[in-house]
UniProtKB/TrEMBL annotation:
Keywords: Cell inner membrane, Cell membrane, Membrane, Transmembrane, Transmembrane helix, Transport
Residue span, Tripartite ATP-independent periplasmic transporters DctQ component domain: 22-152
Superkingdom, natural source: Bacteria
Organism: Oceanimonas doudoroffii
Topology term for the membrane: Multi-pass membrane protein
GO cellular component, one term: plasma membrane
Keyword Membrane among UniProt keywords: yes
Subunit architecture: The complex comprises the extracytoplasmic solute receptor protein and the two transmembrane proteins.
Residues spanning the membrane: 12-34, 46-63, 84-106, 126-144
Designated name of the protein: TRAP transporter small permease protein
GO BP terms, alphabetized: C4-dicarboxylate transport
Length: 163
């Protein structure tokens, strides 16, 4: 990572820990399976959960660094003032989508908590797995907003230099 790249430290650490845990759980399961002809019961449930955490934490980090896959042709061709409008539209569309995920993910988490639903594999409360969806989507919204502010400032500075 370059020194100038914006960072999302908590999300970076969360993603790294989730990836490490997935690797250790999977490796441990493979070793146990081949040495004892049995396997750990928790590996699939935890691995899927950790993969979701890894995905959303990585998305928050990519949002902060403005590193998501995108087509920059339009951004590069627009003058700075219109680029500001495009940045605002990109941010607004992303926030609307993520806010819907936060809302409905929060409702689903609350329902699972209220119904005392348990996971089929290990019997843990499912809300423990689901609460991360709205929380990490809020993190993505925060990182998108930070990115919007940074990109807008850079665009305004570019606009001043052209004048």
């Amino acid at each position: 990572m370059s020194r100038s790249a914006p960072d999302a430290g908590p999300e970076r650490w969360l993603a790294a820990l989730a990836l490490l845990a997935i690797c250790l759980i999977s490796l441990g399961n493979v070793v146990v399976r081949y040495t004892t002809d049995a396997s750990f019961a928790f590996t699939e449930e935890f691995s899927v959960f950790l993969l979701v955490v890894l995905t959303f934490a990585g998305a928050a980090l990519a949002s902060r660094r403005h590193a998501h896959i995108r087509i920059e042709l339009l951004e590069d061709k627009l003058p700075p003032r219109l680029r500001l409008v495009l940045y605002g539209l990109q941010w607004a569309a992303s926030v609307v989508l993520l806010a819907l995920i936060v809302w409905y993910g929060g409702l689903l988490t609350y329902e699972e908590y209220s119904w005392e639903s348990l996971s089929p594999g290990l019997g843990y409360p499912t809300w423990i797995y689901l609460i991360w969806l709205p929380v990490l989507c809020l993190a993505i919204i925060w990182r998108l907003t930070q990115s919007l502010v940074a990109r807008s400032r850079a665009c305004l500075q570019e606009s001043r230099h052209e004048s």
